[in-house]
Amino acid sequence: MKFHYDKPLAITMWDFSWLERRWPGAGYEDWDQVLDELKERGYDAVRIDAYPHLIDADPEKEWTLIPRWNQQVWGAASLTRVSHIARNLIAFMQICKRKGIAVGLSTWFRQDEDDTRMKLKTPADLARIWKSTLDVVEEAGLMDIVLFVDPVNEYPAKPWTPFLYAAAGTDTLTRDSAISVQWMKESLAILRTSYPDLNYTFSDYEYAGIEERETDFLDFMEPHIWLASFTDWDQQVGYSYEAFESTGYDNLALNAEKIYYGQKEYWDSKIVEGIDRIADWAIKAEKALITTECWGVVDWKDWPLLDWKMIKEMCEIGTRRAASKGIWVAISTSNFCGPQFVGMWRDVEWHKQLTDVIHAGKLPTAFLNKT
């Protein structure tokens, strides 16, 4: 991995919220202000959705986007419209550059009313849309702040890669399926012919059999690590990631704190065990790590009976453990480091304490800037 900073970075995920959540009170109306607030909390980098499929199709068009959910507060929870995506991406990145904030480019392949993402049929198509987007960034003189490119969020999760399942003609794929690996390898090989100096990865959320997973074609690894990744937490609290009805959040409100504090030592130990397992895997693979989504529960929000105290306790344990391992080059403090998570965002001192911990960590210099 090419890395030219002198300490680990504190990073956050602003996904597609940076562009979609711009109505009054949604949190991202004023990019200049909210990026100042991010810096105040000690963060150095942000991972965002670049909407590459829509930039490639028409960078100036007004797109009507279909909600992925109405229970979460990432992005728009109802129909919304975005336009001039390329210009907006550049405007956002220019502000980041002025403030010394690095940018990781990713995508969740947001669904528009014509489902443009389904036009992707081959790895070459995936490479093409990303080249179109990177060409825009290059032309604007912003390549120097691109920390990495992650062509698909949490590959190959079906909500973000329906085109891959269509190409495979199946409803079931894993990270290690032949077609999944083929798309990763071939798309990155094509992209590297145009932009060889960037860091490429495919962010990950699957951990079955990771110790044998092929990683040579990745410049680094971007695992998303939660307590729920390694335990039966979701089953115990009754959470099934319901996208459009409230049962899951009702169960979180009724059960999460009771279950966590009833066996706090156990759950905390599982956070640590999961992080240690990922760190050991990365060291064996000789790959640096970045984690932008983590450490406790996957989903939470400002809501009746949902308190941020438990989340902050879980995430402090995870952040401190990851920072102590010497294998991460960028670490997030949680899934919820954005202005729409008001109860989390307003605790400025909590963020400062943990970003200080991140900055004090050691870099995996043996795995960086190899020639």
What are the segments in which pLDDT stays under 50 over at least 5 consecutive residues?
Answer: none
Give the C-level CATH assignment: Alpha Beta
- State the domain count: 1
For the largest beta sheet, what order do the strands appear in spatially? 6-5-2-1-10-8
Major sheet details: 6 strands, parallel
End-to-end distance: 10 Å
Structural class: alpha/beta
The chain-level mean pLDDT equals 98
| Fold-level CATH name | TIM Barrel
Q: Tell me the fraction of residues in β-strands, as a range.
A: 5-15%
Enumerate how many helices there are, as a single number: 14
Shape: globular
- Radius of gyration equals 19 Å
CATH superfamily: Glycosidases
CATH architecture: Alpha-Beta Barrel
Total beta strand runs:
10
Portion of residues within helices:
40-55%
Order of helices and strands: EHHEHEEHEHEHHEHHHHEEHEHH
What can you tell me about this protein's structure?
- With 371 residues, this protein is α/β, with parallel strands linked by helices.
- It has one domain (9-367): Glycosidases (TIM Barrel, Alpha-Beta Barrel), CATH 3.20.20.80.
- The chain is built from 14 helices and 10 strands.
- It has helices at residues 17-20, 31-40, 52-57, 85-99, 123-139, 162-168, 178-194, 227-230, 233-237, 247-262, 264-285, 308-324, 342-345, 348-359; strands at 9-15, 45-49, 63-65, 80-82, 102-106, 146-149, 225-226, 289-291, 294-295, 328-331.
- The strands form 3 sheets. A 6-stranded parallel β-sheet has the order 6-5-2-1-10-8. Strands 3-4 form a two-stranded antiparallel sheet. A two-stranded parallel sheet has the order 7-9.
- Helix 5 packs parallel to helix 7 (178-194).
- It is globular.
- The termini are close together.
- The model has no long low-confidence stretch (mean pLDDT 98).
- This is Cellulase-like family protein.
